[in-house]
Fold these 2 entries.
Entry 1:
Amino acid sequence: MVVWSESERSIITSIFSSLDYDDIGPKALCRCLIVYPWTQRYFGGYGNLYNATAIKTNPLIAAHGIKVLHGLDRAVKNMDDIKATYAELSVLHSEKLHVDPDNFRLLADCLAIVIAAQMGTAFTSEIQAAFQKFVAVVVSALGRQYH
Amino acid sequence: MTTLTPKDKDAVRKFWTIAGGAREDIGREALNRLIAVYPQTKTYFAHWKDVSPTSPNVAKHGITIMNAVSDAVGIIDDLKGGLLNLSELHAFTLRVDPANFKLLAHCVMVVLAIRFPDDFTPEIHMAFDKFWLLWLWLCPRSTDKLAPEIICCSKAKNKTF
């Protein structure tokens, strides 16, 4: 079971309460699709992903980025049982969407970089450590139901 | 193995004209972050009594790393040959688990995003990520003292071994 310090809980809650989901969500997903182009394989029905500009201006990608980021809210609200919180989503990503779980880590790293760019020097080592621990738990939970 | 296209090399070189001047600060901060965010990496620095953010050893090593990265940008057309000595050091003397280079790369890129939020675009990020993947060359897996490809590089440079 994951143990969170009061400081870590406070950091995670604070990061997500100050995020502009409509900005950060699309930026994180776009960055993932551009930096790790094989992730585009999961977005065949999303229209034009031909180049970086097309990805950045694609409204379907933007909407999905926002949806994914809001999906993290459930983990923020249930930090003591993220595994159970994402059990159903894990099954979905495994059985229906067939997403290689390694890609969750790639998206999480892109999200860290986008948040770092937005927070600037306020994204200290301590804050990054708490954030990376949080996304590592989320990534693990999302991969949990794969078999 | 990943290769850098001419466009990737241009992107890395161009970004480095903006970021390179701050490489010492970037190095210090990136290594501090690596140790703070991924504490398992401290095992490689057990010979330092102090691995805190104010440690002069950590600062010095961070600077060393980013100076090496800066040199690598300068020889981006021949990374394999140019990184030969560093490669052997990390693989056979220091024996660093290759996974840790990815963690360090991530920390460097977080620092770049913080310092250059508008310049560290997804396109530049991609080129830099590919550039870092080539650093995985730092850990050849051969149990021989020198892997065959390194031997070829050495022979090409008339090195004795």
Note: The longest helix of chain A spans residues 125-143.
Entry 2:
Amino acid sequence: VKHTHTYTQTNIYIHTQSGIQWAHFSPVFQNRFKSPLRIKKTLSKTGVKNIVLVDGVRTPFLQSGTTYADLMPHDLARTALQGLLNRTGIPKDAVDYIIYGTVIQEVKTSNVAREAALGAGFSDRIPAHTVTMACISSNQAMTTAVGMIAAGQCDAVVAGGVEFMSDVPIRHSRKMRKTMLSLNKAKTLGARLALLGSIRPAHLAPELPAVAEFSTEETMGHSADRLAAAFGVSRREQDEYALRSHSLAKRAQDEGLLSDVVGFKVPGKDIVSKDNGIRPSSMEQMAKLKPAFVKPHGTVTAANSSYLTDGASAVLIMSEEKALALGYKPKAYLRDFVYVSQDPKDQLLLGPSYATPKVLERSGLKLADIDVFEFHEAFAGQILSNLKAMDSDWFAKTYMGRTSKVGSPPLDKFNLWGGSLSLGHPFGATGCRLVTTVAHRLKKEGGQYGLVAACAAGGQGHAMVIEAYPQ
Amino acid sequence: FCVFIVAARTHVNYELKDDVAVVRLNDPTSKVNTLSKQMEAEITQVMNEVWGNAQVKSAVVISTKPGCFVAGADINMIKACKSAEEVTSLSQEGQKMFEKIEKSPIPVVAAINGSCLGGGLELAIACQYRLATKSKKTVLGTPEVLLGLLPGAGGTQRLPKMVGLPTAFDMMLTGRNIRADKAKKMGLLHQIIDPLGPGLKSPEERTMEYLEEVAVGVAKDLAAKKVTVDKKKGLIQKLQDVVMGFPFVRKQIYNTVTKKVMKQTKGLYPAPLKIIECVQSGVEKGSSTGYQVESENFGKLGMTAESRALIGLYQGQVACKKNNFGTPERELKTLAILGAGLMGAGIAQVTVDKGVATILKDTTLEGLARGQQQVYKGLNDKVKKRGITSFERDATLSFLTGQLDYSGFQKADMVIEAVFEDLAIKHQVLKEVEAVTPAHCIFASNTSALPIRDIAAVSKRPEKVIGMHYFSPVDKMQLLEIITTDKTSKDTTASAVALGLRQGKIIIVVGDGPGFYTTRCLAPMLAEAVRLLQEGVGPKMLDSLTTSIGFPVGMATLADEVGIDVAAHVAEDLGKAFGQRFGGGNVELLKTMVQKGFKGRKSGKGCFLYGAKSKDKQVNPGAEEILKTFKLTAPPAVSGNEDVQYRLICRFVNEAVLCLQEGILPDPIQGDIGAVFGLGFPPCFGGPFRFVDTFGADRLLQKMKRYEEFYGNHFTPCQLLQDHARDPSKRFHK
């Protein structure tokens, strides 16, 4: 029955293109939409499967080195998976595939998706793989899932992301590693002793995972500072934006809007149920901080940057038919998405500026059609630079080969429940948080279209259009 | 009523940003800012206004040209001077102006983006605070010594105080360019800022604005005493200061530096010694003496022949970095190179990093692998020196394709052959290439002596055939000699010059003939060198006699470097082409050496022995044996050291002048540039033509006549030289 119902709705949507106010057809619709005068079509396309987000959860995002400090990444991912199982009640073998995104890999669990799934109570017959694409790794996990479903190979896929910055792989130096590997092959005691004798104090210096972009050797914070300077974003603007992010996150947390968070009983510690990095400060306090990357004249500080975070997220994605067949009421349609990439030196963090107009074009939408924006906040300076870039005809023409600007998202629709600056940013896990938040905000605010956009190391970016599921 | 007549300022203006005066430099008549009379006058005027304005609490000096702060003093201003006193007074004016800035009652910040050289650096170091962009274009340095001059506007006095004696000497005596990050470490800069990428304006424009914003911020902080101009000194620096406090240590330094300079310049260049004198006077006798010595020495140097020669070379070099043949009809996108030897791979190396798709073709895998490794190594050395990143190296290498066949040649816009110097082989590859390349494709030969018209004889498209004579090692030698035949089209020439300029070359374009210009001048001098060896001047003595007149490499060593086989080849070919004039030395001597395997450095033995790592070069006993069998008696009247040197020079110069007379050379400027940058003709002479002007054609003629008596027509002066000797008003350079 539900099936037929949906298709009928779809038909109604299509009619709206000719200007019929479909909202008037049903009192249910009128209830849901606070502004019933909107005339919006569905983004469903003929020949393309409708793919839905059934639900999404995440562990609390904690500053690294706090309560999660003694765990391993798969522990966090497993917790997110268990949370998803509990929240959706999906049968343990109803999932066809599991995909996780992560950035800094724990070498012991390099396919963290599989290690997490094995302990999460899912059937051991469900294949799992791990993807990586810097800060848009879980976006990549989700779109991989969308691709598998669209191609008709799967019906239900779990996608997620995890990042664990409390522990990172610190390696021996290359020279030491070479010696140690040769040691394995040395046959005689003499040969072994000779190798051991070749070790010098310098060989013992450890190698930390690089915080710098590999191709340019520039740290992301440094690039963000240059970006802010290039777009003339002041220190004050950045601090104000960061303060906004923390204040909005605090309000969302206090009002219980962050319902994607599932509690986590950390072994040997208390139950964690809240993000712990949300700290609304004052402009005066923030102004006292010294620049963190470009010294002494830079503008990016610890207070207007996202911080190192531990956390994991998971979403359940299905074809619409499957979701309805299993009796679910999906939260949203996952519609068009794009990936973009550009110069990793000077445009490292401009992904959203490139991705936004492209994905809107693909969906046949204008910026004004979007009700809910969720952009990944790597740095306040990065967000503000992107807003300025999107509002510049010159930038659109000179660098993006477009005829005009796409426009700057209005702040009253933008990251209203906080963002990566305040909630935290576990690199691999942020994408799922953004998508789930869009779905929740669409419902809460009564919007129809949402837009997710994010930048990522390597000069890459992503955007996705999300459509509210009719209630 | 009254009328104010204010001379409009064109080069310098200023604007108030709150209480900071932003002084902007911009010479509207040039791509670069130079300290011309106009510029200096306006700086003085503006600074006086700034100092007179009670509102102003600090100042920023900045250029509005993105790639240039101030590139140096105006050379023509110095050239125009008629006496040492005039040059001295130029120096004094500069000194005064910068002293006022140094003693400014308000802090002055120099904000540097682009070249900050010579007088530009002296301006910057007179300011209280310096910050610069970390752009690739930002370089600091004191290149005056390369023009035979010294930093004459207080540079010799301020630099030692700022960076210490040893570093100051290094900077002023080498004239080398220093990148911003290095300059900060040396204590030359207080602060550096990273260039910006795209924003709401072009990166260049916004970077300039940003530099100014940061500089204004610093200026305000300096005025408010929130920051100080003192730089924190490291332990090493402090130790060095203590050590330099001892007079005997300083004395030791002056001595060591003087010795080093004498060893390197053979006393042929006066400027380095004067620089040492200026620094020493300032440090030991106080700055007023120092300034006086500096300006006097600057005046003296300004009138020396060496300085005029070096300035001539500098300006000639600028002239040879232009394309006088117009814009090519087609942009060169794909270049194919035949032969992955030293030359072929060298040409590939200087091409791939300009974004030109480059095919490197060889006939064997071993040869190809060696060539590709050479290109890789060349780029990787830059990575090691932090000139480029490993990613830039990899991206650059992606433009290179190594192969053994002609696939992809249908896309080639130009082919440069660097195969063995044999006309039959050249003909063969030319035919093969023309069969697979498009009609617009240019065929360039990197031959060093074979006439291009002979190579073009088998071409279906002779208008597309040209000579491009590179010098080894290609990535180090700046010269490219382009040879056109009477059939070569103008567009072909324009394309070849355009490529050479992209490769960063200094280019001379000469007419066709055996040996063209450079090889043709070298051959008679080489013949004379062989003659000298036969006459009992040993290889070591020959080296010492040639280096002591300013050749960077001794003649015997040069022969080893070029290859004795190549030298024999050239001597024989050109000997046949030009007859007796190219005689003197016995070609058989060279041939015998080749037979014995003494081919020069590449075979481990030539005039000298190679391989052993000892610093002192050993003469090859085998070569000495051969020399004995070819021994000739030296005529004592013309075999003194000086005569030996003049004999070598005369033969070179006479042939060069003959090339001009015959129209091989289009003008004396290209002749001088080719001789100095391609063959190492002593830079202190400024090239063979300037040598004739300075030395006097009549004097040269007398010497040649004397040598002619003993050696015959090797020393017969050419007509043009005779004309110049007869009429002293005739000069090659105005």
Note: Residues 235-254 of chain A form the longest helix (20 residues).
